[in-house]
Design a protein that fits this description.
The structure is a homodimer of 258-residue chains. The first copy, chain A, is α/β, with parallel strands linked by helices and 258 residues long. Chain A folds into two domains: 132 residues, Tetrapyrrole methylase, N-terminal domain (Cobalt-precorrin-4 Transmethylase, domain 1, 3-Layer(aba) Sandwich); 112 residues, Tetrapyrrole methylase, C-terminal domain (Methyltransferase, Cobalt-precorrin-4 Transmethylase, Domain 2, 2-Layer Sandwich), CATH 3.30.950.10. The first copy, chain A, contains ten helices and ten strands. In chain A, the strands form two sheets. Chain A has a five-stranded parallel sheet with strand order 3-2-4-1-5, sandwiched between helices. Chain A has a five-stranded mixed sheet with strand order 6-7-10-8-9, with helices on both faces. In chain A, α3 links the parallel β2 and β3. The interface between A and B is large, with 68 and 68 residues. β6 of chain A pairs antiparallel with β6 of chain B.
Chain lengths: 258, 258
Amino acid sequence: MSVPGRGGLLLVPNALDLGTEPVDIQQVLPLGVLQCAARMEHWLAEDARSTRAFLKRVHAVVPLQRPLQAIDIRELPRPPKGGGAGHAAPGDPLWRELLAPALAGKDVGLISEAGLPAVADPGAAAVAAAHALGIVVVPLPGASSLLLALAASGLNGQSFAFVGYLPQDAIQRSARLKELQALSRRTAQTQLLIETPYRNATLLKALLEQLAEETRLSVSCGLSLPSGWTRTDRIAEWRRRPTQMPERVPAVFAFLAD
Amino acid sequence: MSVPGRGGLLLVPNALDLGTEPVDIQQVLPLGVLQCAARMEHWLAEDARSTRAFLKRVHAVVPLQRPLQAIDIRELPRPPKGGGAGHAAPGDPLWRELLAPALAGKDVGLISEAGLPAVADPGAAAVAAAHALGIVVVPLPGASSLLLALAASGLNGQSFAFVGYLPQDAIQRSARLKELQALSRRTAQTQLLIETPYRNATLLKALLEQLAEETRLSVSCGLSLPSGWTRTDRIAEWRRRPTQMPERVPAVFAFLAD
């Protein structure tokens, strides 16, 4: 899975627990990934501090090849408010600097706060830049909470879309939900959404209010944690028997309209 | 990650290599998953033979708790020609029989030919049935080739759709591609597609002919294999410098229209 001597951008999956209620990392990541992480000297990350925390967890299973202080961790440029990838296009000279070790024949690890990098996070710009610079990109196998939630939902896994966050404004959110439900009904496409954990209860409330009675809704909470759970039911049943959302636990929402 | 004493449907990720050029399974699956697989006595699978092959690979790392011949592997009902989930609805008595061990308090493992069960495979019907029967569903962490390909593409990972297979008829395929490209352009949504390996070259040819010059196309071939690769380029560049698709290696295709 590595590219010895050539230098590549290795996409390193992280655990899904975000450090809360942390599980033994070998329970959730393949040994091959831990070995690879333990030997890499260069990293690109959303956050250097949490990457050091990740490397400490790796070290407990596979000792790091050099001391943590000697490992080079560079932070990705922050995306502008409101998202968008326009802040640092693949041709931006910044990327040549951030990816310099890979251009010099060394592996660089790209890591996210949870799950796969470059999925629902700012890492995709780094991957696009690597392709533009002719750097080999190697995704290491690991879980994405989005697809674990989809699998656990029992909803249509042959056609699905991840639509990110809903608008926070109630009127816009309601309009967007109606639109997604109509799309789901027309195309039998499962719709996947996320929210920041402290707003999960608000999102669930909106889903229960706005979606149709027969629409099936699945919520996966705390994926890979011992306390994790998935519930799939029609909206009518959710309304009859609501579930309390925990406040600090990441969740993924999926729905399919019949 | 398990549900001791209660009985659940555990979604067990498989390797991505489909047995061709098989890699050491601990390089690609977490130890926690292998330990869980090694102790389970009941399985639901697309194919019993390949499930036994999987269990042999597990056994080489974590010895199975009982002999392979004593492990109960039940095959999922075959979906009808043309797909659709209508063949065995969640309420079908067949599921009560197939999931009987879980109803009796034992764990049942659901496994796919590659990657996550219930994603782009017939397993979702079993998961829906488990929810309908009140059986706890637990997805174990593992890779999906779809999301590894998305991560490796560098295309938009904040909004994406998996659209499955394109129609085989050339006219219908062309119309569908035009529709997906227009959707991608309008909504900045990455479109993910798959094809059976022996038709990958035909699909690539169609994509190069039908998509617009500036559309970015990414192909990931042989994910998690030492020989695997990902290429992302604009269609114009793919046309100038085509890549030969290997014949028997699974691939994932992703595109994003600007």
